[in-house]
Amino acid sequence: MAEDPIIAQTSPYQVDLVEGETYWYCRCGRSQSQPFCDGSHQDTGIEPLEFVAPSTGTFNLCGCKATDDEPWCDGSHNVL
Ligand code: FES
């Protein structure tokens, strides 16, 4: 059975992404390389999310792991 995600931080991570590049978003909250996967999800039953940047620019990636729009911040951290 999967463990619950933990809150990495209660605000989004602002990161620069490059259009067409593939990234691995941490969904377990345990990575030390937030908001990206560092393999810490091993044995949690939670898998990272592979996604491709839609454009080049700065994006807000969810740090609280409660968003309904992974990997993007949807404001859910405001009601934790
Ligand atoms: S940081 Fe998770 S919804 Fe904003």
Structure notes:
The chain has 80 residues and is mainly β. 0% of the residues lie in helices and 22% in strands. It has strands spanning 13-17, 22-25, 49-52, 57-61. It has a two-stranded antiparallel ribbon. Strands 2-3 form a two-stranded antiparallel sheet. It is globular, with a radius of gyration of 12 Å. The protein binds FE2/S2 (inorganic) cluster. FE2/S2 (inorganic) cluster (FES) is lined by residues 11-12, 62-64, 66-67, 73-77.
Spatial ordering of strands, largest sheet: 1-4
- Count of helical stretches: 0
Bound molecules: FE2/S2 (inorganic) cluster
> What would you report as the Rg, rounded to the nearest angstrom?
12 Å
β content, as a range? 15-25%
- Structural class, from helix and strand content? mainly beta
What are the secondary-structure elements, in order, as H or E?
EEEE
Shape: globular
Q: What can be said about the biggest beta sheet?
A: 2 strands, antiparallel
Number of strands: 4
Output mean pLDDT.
97
Low-confidence stretches: none
| N/C terminus separation | 24 Å
Range of helix content:
under 10%
